[in-house]
Design a protein that fits this description.
This protein is mainly beta. The protein has no helices and 15 strands. The strands form five sheets. A four-stranded antiparallel β-sheet has the order 4-3-11-12, with no helix packed on it. Strands 7-8-9-10 form a four-stranded antiparallel β-sheet, with no helix packed on it. A three-stranded antiparallel β-sheet has the order 2-5-6, with no helix packed on it. A hairpin with a 2-residue loop joins strand 11 and strand 12.
Length: 165
Amino acid sequence: MRRPTPDPAGPGQESVWDYPRPPALDPSDEHVVVTFGGETIADSRGAIRVLETSHAPVYYLPRDDVREEFLAEVERRTFCEFKGMAAYADVVAGGRRASAACWWFPEPTPGYEAIRDWVAFYPSRMDRVTVNGEEVRSVGGDFYGSWVTSRVVGPFKGGPGTQGW
């Protein structure tokens, strides 16, 4: 499958096709808020974005900025060729449960230690996720839980027909 043509980036935008592989860690002071079931699950100004070629960024939030009383760890585990083994939790609030809605890397591989135990959320499984007040959109198929905002342009890996990029 051939690589798609990148969308043109405007002023202040980034093309995901300029992101590296293996992924880079990018500290961010953007204001990130995650809500579910009428509760603020996370509120942070100290995220780290993981940037990987063709993927919209994934924001990892420090544990101190996540209300852990709303996380219920589950048995699910997945493996990332770059970051290692991920652990998951359901998000439970307001009488609702979002299955495997967040994840973290308890023992990340060398080079990714900065996100050890930091939490990332699938935006599509939360009621609302914002970055600097802008509502985050998820990539089709929830691929890697990527976060799409007006800051980034694609096309984004994750939707139907993109697996071979």
